[in-house]
Design goal:
Helix content: over 70%
Largest sheet: none
Shape: globular
Radius of gyration: 12 Å
Structural class: mainly alpha
Number of strands: 0
């Protein structure tokens, strides 16, 4: 998860996202994870699962911090 956060750090800070944007990104990552599972590519599965976990963590943090 930390590796993927570092890889995507050039995209900017997540604190600027709202909850709806974050959930949309989470849904996209779930789709990418599903595709990786269909392919059977273990490396992609691990990396996409980390993205899903990161966006879920970000969504939870936004919801808690901003009272959503």
């Amino acid at each position: 998860m930390l590796y993927k956060l570092e890889v995507h750090s050039r995209k900017g800070r997540w604190e600027n996202l709202d909850l709806d944007q974050t959930v949309q990104k989470l849904e996209g990552e779930v789709s990418e994870l599903t595709d990786a599972m269909v392919e059977g590519n273990h490396i992609k599965i691990i990396l996409e699962a980390a993205d899903v976990a990161n966006y879920a963590m970000i969504a939870a943090s936004i919801a808690v911090e901003r009272g959503k």
